[in-house]
């Protein structure tokens, strides 16, 4: 993603999708790739709230122990606490703090999202929707909501049977309408468990950010 000095605002990228789409593993691979490029990274992982403590139920900081000793990576799990859209109410504030701390990229992983949970698109510069083979009619059920807000589609677990079908359904949906602004959301295939496709995804995010700048659309680093 676009490099910048530590005094610049970071680029915010959100990763949304249904439970089991592999968002956490994909985000982990993205962190690894960005660190290889020398970028400092912040991760905000929104998890369901524990019914007992109210805290984050899954805790992505536990799942990303590889980066526990890396000062260039800061991971914050947050409980949704009933907030809508797969987010938590304090996510925007945490983004500001991470920006002030010099993070050059901030990755936001939402909870599993449904048809109308599009709030994260209003916060992030680039919204990535993660889909997987075997969703059945899920693509159609999401079409009227969050799919219309996606800047990039990722077909994760693309080594599984049905990946071609998912991509065709996305292409068919796009043929029936568009963003209305000239950007046709690309489809990127990944296998998050091995990191395959991560480089292509980073390059696609770069293109989206540069396209926004070229059009004069204020990205998050300019809006705050």
Walk me through this protein's architecture.
It contains 8 helices and 7 strands, in the order βαβαβαββααβαβαα. With 224 residues, it is of the alpha/beta class. The chain has a 7-stranded parallel sheet, with helices on both faces. Strand 2, helix 2 and strand 3 form a beta-alpha-beta unit.
Provide a short characterization of the protein structure.
It contains 8 helices and 7 strands; from the N terminus they run βαβαβαββααβαβαα.
What's the number of helices? 8
Calculate the mean pLDDT score and round it: 78
Give the structural class: alpha/beta
Count every beta strand, where a strand is a DSSP E run of 2 or more residues: 7
Strand arrangement, major sheet: 3-2-4-1-5-6-7
Helix percent reads 25-40%
SSE order, as H and E?
A: EHEHEHEEHHEHEHH
Residues in β-strands, percent: 15-25%
Low-confidence stretches: 49-57
In one word, what is the shape? globular
Q: What is the CA-CA span between the terminal residues?
A: 19 Å
Round the Cα radius of gyration to an integer and report it: 16 Å
- Largest beta-sheet characterization: 7 strands, parallel
């Amino acid at each position: 993603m676009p490099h910048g000095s530590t005094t610049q605002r970071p680029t915010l990228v959100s990763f949304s999708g249904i439970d089991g789409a592999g968002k956490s593993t994909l985000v982990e691979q993205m962190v690894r790739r960005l660190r290889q490029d020398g970028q400092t990274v912040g991760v905000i992982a929104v998890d369901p709230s524990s019914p007992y403590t109210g805290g984050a139920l899954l805790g992505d900081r536990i799942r990303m122990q590889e980066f526990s000793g890396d000062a260039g990576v800061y991971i914050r799990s947050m409980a949704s606490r009933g907030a809508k859209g797969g987010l938590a109410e304090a996510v925007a504030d945490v983004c500001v703090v991470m920006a002030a701390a010099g993070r050059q990229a901030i990755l936001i992983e939402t909870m599993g999202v449904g048809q109308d949970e599009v709030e994260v698109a209003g916060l992030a510069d680039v919204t990535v929707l993660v889909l997987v083979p075997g969703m059945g009619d899920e693509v159609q059920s999401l079409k009227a909501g969050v799919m219309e807000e996606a800047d990039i589609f990722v077909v994760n677990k693309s080594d599984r049977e049905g990946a071609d079908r998912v991509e065709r359904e996305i292409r068919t949906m796009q043929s029936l309408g568009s963003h209305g602004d000239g950007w046709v959301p690309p489809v990127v295939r990944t296998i998050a468990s091995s990191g395959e496709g991560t480089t292509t995804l980073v390059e696609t995010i770069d293109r989206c950010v540069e396209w926004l700048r070229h059009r004069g659309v204020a990205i998050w680093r300019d809006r705050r």
